[in-house]
Amino acid sequence: MLALRKTRPEAGTELVEVPVPQTLEEGEVLVRVAAAGICGSDLHVDDWTASYAFIAPYLPVTLGHEFVGTIASGPRAGQRVVVRPSVTCGRCAHCQAQNFDACEQRRGIGMTRDGAFATWVRAPLRNCIPVPAGVSDTLASLVEPFSIAMQAVRQAGDLSGRTVLVMGPGTIGQAIAVLARRLGAARIVVTGFQDAVRLDTLRAMGFDDLVDVSQTPLTQWLTTRADLPPFDLVFEATGVPATITEALGLLRRDGVVVVTGIHDRPLSLDLTPFVRRQLQLRGSFRPPESDWPRVLDLMGELGEAIRPMVSHVLPLARAHEGFALAHGKQANKVLLVPEEHDGR
């Protein structure tokens, strides 16, 4: 079968033929992939940035962790599912106590074990979440980034009546904006840098306060919005450390920045104003497992309102074209669809 693989600890990926998985470990099933989304993390792996060098010992590896497919083996064969990509070890004290969210010896599908930029992928059955009949493959492919966004808004606290800034209009930033609106935020501003396509996607979903800071610096834009109070909350979804420094300067006293981006270099922070203004900096990463069924239900409720988030659906054989579109910010979410033949 065709697969998109990271083969060496350097920039680039390769489309290669690999065998269909033949051996399943206890508790695993074989999933036929219907569609898999290109994530910002995949772009970092493609570029081989320092923040993803941790996967080097696991190369070569098939990428792809945002996916929907159909179970092809075991008692649930034929069931359409999304798959949580974070695989718990099953051996540590937390796993033995069924406290899987606390496991710290994980493997990541599409990072440190083979992923879904292929026709077939192995996955633990417990990671497979049934997709409701009313949720299309296209919408189901957005569950993983929406789960990340759900964790981010949880970390932020009550959003009702709040003034919110989302820095970074990628899929996670877009999902944060959608959830913030749903949770009653009074005003939502989203910024990007040379991000016309992704800001247009937000516009199509009903967001108006959109700023491309490559054309108009945010501080300049804010001078034209006298009715906009200082931000209560800022969500950082860029992966650029300098945006955090900027975000802290835009907060009201006691304001909160929630960091969701993965950064390839450290942040230099002046702590004096941070302390005197009683600001808070909160990290957000992996959601609890219990969020996934909730996000699937949310996909059914949001429906076509978030359909603009998927801009391109390409065959897996054109994966490099999809990556180029994503790298160049010429696409919103790109889905890769395996070929019809299954390789079995």
Give a verbal description of the structure:
- The protein has 344 residues and is of the alpha/beta class.
- The chain has 2 domains: 2-143 and 287-337, Quinone Oxidoreductase, Chain A, domain 1 (Alpha-Beta Complex), CATH 3.90.180; 144-283, Rossmann fold (3-Layer(aba) Sandwich).
- The chain is built from 11 helices and 18 strands.
- The protein has helices at 40-47, 93-96, 137-140, 143-156, 171-182, 196-204, 218-223, 241-250, 271-276, 291-302, 319-327; strands spanning 2-6, 14-17, 28-37, 61-62, 66-71, 80-83, 86-87, 107-108, 120-124, 128-130, 163-167, 187-192, 210-212, 231-236, 251-259, 280-283, 310-315, 333-337.
- The strands form 4 sheets. Strands 3, 5, 6, 9, 10, 17 and 18 form a 7-stranded mixed beta sheet that branches. A 6-stranded parallel beta sheet has the order 13-12-11-14-15-16, sandwiched between helices.
- The model has no long low-confidence stretch (mean pLDDT 95).
Strand proportion, as a percent range, falls in 25-35%
Give the beta-strand count.
Answer: 18
Continuous helix count? 11
Largest sheet: 7 strands, mixed
Class inferred from helices and paired strands = alpha/beta
The percent range for helix content is: 25-40%
Domain count? 2
N-to-C CA distance: 8 Å
Shape: globular
CATH topology of the largest domain: Quinone Oxidoreductase, Chain A, domain 1
Low-confidence stretches: none
Question: What is the CATH class designation of the largest domain?
Answer: Alpha Beta
CA radius of gyration is 20 Å
Mean pLDDT, all residues = 95
Give me the CATH architecture of the largest domain, please.
Alpha-Beta Complex
Identify the CATH homologous superfamily of the largest domain: Medium-chain alcohol dehydrogenases, catalytic domain
Order of helices and strands: EEEHEEEEHEEEHHEHEHEHEHEHEHEHE
GO molecular function, one term: oxidoreductase activity
Keywords: Metal-binding, Oxidoreductase, Zinc
Protein name: Sorbitol dehydrogenase
InterPro entries: ADH-like_C, ADH-like_N, ER, GroES-like_sf, NAD(P)-bd_dom_sf, Zn_alcohol_dh
